[in-house]
Amino acid sequence: MTHPAPHRQAKSRGVSVRHQPRSVPRGLVELLRKLAKVKAQARALGIFTDDRELLECPNCGLLEDVTAEGLLVTYPKDSVDLKDCGLRFCPVDDTRFACPKCGTSVKAVIL
Asked: If exposure means fewest CB atoms within 10 Å of the residue's CB, which of 51, 57, 60, 106 is most exposed?
């Protein structure tokens, strides 16, 4: 009776990574890592990466929007000029964000 081989751990740039099944090309795995890095850089620059729905606070009406350039902005729901107020919803966990204006917890729809 043969036993399946145990999962092996490999070190890649200081990060422990499980071997991928043979059906997944190594190039694809590396490409996905690079994509994740680029998305993180885009978020740091204020670019909306379209991985969740835009947020709106049910309590105070602060809402998110995206400019034609792809930048994430926020403004009050009743704003006339739609000028970015500079506030950003803060992640609490994987699906909830805190409103920066009133602190209300808002559930995000993850895409």
From this structure: 51
Q: Which residues contact 10 (CB under 8 A, 6 or more apart)?
A: 16, 17, 18, 19
How many domains does the chain contain in total? Answer: 1
Q: Tally Cβ neighbours within 10 Å of residue 110.
A: 9
CA distance 69 to 106: 25
Which residues contact residue 88 at a Cβ distance below 8 angstroms, ignoring those fewer than 6 apart? 72, 74, 100
Contact 110, 51 (CB under 8 A): yes
- Each residue of 36-55: pLDDT tens digit? 999 999 989 988 888 899 99
Residue 36 phi/psi, 5° resolution? Answer: -60, -40
Range of the domain at 66: 62-107
Q: How far apart are CA 93 and CA 107, in angstroms?
A: 10
State pTM to two decimals.
0.67
